[in-house]
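User: Round two. Same drill as before: sequence, then structure, for each protein.

Assistant: Same drill it is. First protein:
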Amino acid sequence: MRRRGAQPATGARPDTRPGSLPALARRVHAPWRALATAAMALLLAAPCAAAIPAEGGGAAARPARPFHFSALGHPFRAATDENLLRRAITEANQDKPAFIVATGIKAPTEACSDRLYAQRRDILDGSPRPLVLLPAGSDWAGCRNSAGRSNAIERLNRLREVFYPDSQSLGVRRMPLTRLSANVKFRSYAENAYWEQGGILFATLNIPDNNNHYLPEAGRNSEYEDRLVANRAWLHRLFLMAQRRNMEGIVLFTDGDIKAHVDEGFSLLSGFSAKQDGYAPVRKQVRTFAEKYKGKVLLVDSQGDAKAAPAITWRGNLGRLGVAGEWETVRIVPGTASLFSLKDADAP
């Protein structure tokens, strides 16, 4: 006789009769053991990568679709014919760009009158595609009053009232913009605006072609220095935003060529009668930001050579496109090494 819970005596055989408890237990557990063995075999056979999630926690985001924009040069550089502006707008719209950026509304010899400003706005506002205007130096910097004195600041403020009354572009189809004037500290600088398309940041900066309106006369260059501070804050904001959002590229539109893409050994003061280079501060800042930026920076100005074939010139990740009096269309293919190219040229 054995007590309850006692082990069988050494050498005793378990009861293997068909109706015994040990035999029934083996028949019940055998299928589960088979399932467990099969599951373990599948786990061992599966590749290790399947058990480890991809970096970033999911599939990579698809790059934005390719698109293009058009940039108009300054059609009034050597003429006063409004038909040049009308034709440029019409032809640029035929390419069906995402938007158009135009530089300049008048020739230096034309009057700086409210009537002319309103007339040119009507032309620009008739663009079927969204149109962003960047003022040229001839639109305000050279203006004088009836006494022959400079009227630049007053005329610049009037331009802002006529062409930048809200946070929308010009054109039949409007495009929302963010203006520097939304910042209380820089409420006057409505001509500086930015917008985003396809993961690329676009922005305008008021940098006129007359040596950035730096005056060689003795005394304080109040307009130049105040605008320099505003542009410095604007550039800092743009690059910081592009870096934080990991944007592929930045396109900056200016009237004057700041020559940020030119090697340091080049004589940057050539062509200027002033002793000081008015573009030096902004050029230094753009270069400094571009060196720290992982994407590409394209500078577009209206100082192109009408006799030379248009091209984008690169210096590291900093490129420059000069547009003459006509217009150029820039193609953007996100997710590619070249990113920017002229639409009618072979991609590099």
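Second protein:
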Amino acid sequence: MRMLILAPLRIFWSYLLREVLPLPSRTAVLVFMAVLLGLPLVIEDPYLLRIVIMTCIFSVFAASWDFLSSYSGQVSFGHALFFGVGAYTSALLNYHLHWSPWLTLPLGGVAAMISGILVGIPCLRLRGSYLSLATLSFPLILTGILFVFPDFSGGELGISGLTPLVRDRVNFFYVAVFSMLALNWGLWKLGDSKTGLILHAIREDEVAARASGINTPRYKLMAFAVSALVAGLAGALLAHFIRSVGPSTLEVSLSFQAVIWGIFGGVATIYGPIIGVFLLYPLTELLSLMGGVSEYRLLIFALVVLAVLIFMPEGFTPWLRDKVETECRRCKSPNVFTRRQCRICQADLR
């Protein structure tokens, strides 16, 4: 019994010493996770916990946009569609049928995935701005449909009085944090796998990828489905956290927020949009609380984003990573910038 407990701990500790602690970026992720999990122990203010919960939910939404738009090159300007479908599906099932939110939440994700497939099929032949404009139209269409049936969907006012996942805010905090870590880790692993390489190839040159024998329509449709599933789960989480859902979950501004978060943090990384949300969303909330500055919060927000785009064109996270880490030219392994030899193949890094 003792060996069964100690063996996984030794493997985990060996992995930390070999792969995590030697790299500043991975060490920063480990510290970030530890601080995030211990936050309720030092912060009791419900408003601050609410900001962190909302940040976790929106980081999942932003990462799902990054997987679709940056990995496969299918830039979506209507990503709020999947967020809204997940939120409305979970909310309507809970409100009208009184189903448990623990059941309606995954059903909301499945409904969003189905909508992603239905949207992806007509968009397979579109490229560039035509694809972006086509995706922009779908949340507008769904909003119009919801307004046609106000008795069922709540119309412009939406639906309120939903059942929360858990009663205590601290417990919901941990639900949001663990959901964020699990979903974003899944997206990152998928993007770092063979599937991610294929999506990169399709983004760079779809004709060449198809000539290599890759079934590009299948992979592009898969990207739509996975991205929509994760975005739908994020929308359902938000609906049961604020205990209401309305047309704001389908607004065009929400779609463009995901674009801003992704570009600010660094596209095609998954962790870049997460950092973007954790920097920008609390910033906007903080500026709204500052009396004399609150009127100019949108201007300050725009200036911060513009400064990053000018001085860090690849995004904040890749810029910072390149400052503290060096990639080995032989084995492509990352190393801390102070090393003279690669930690894997011992090649000269200077």
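The chain has a mean pLDDT of 92.

User: Perfect.
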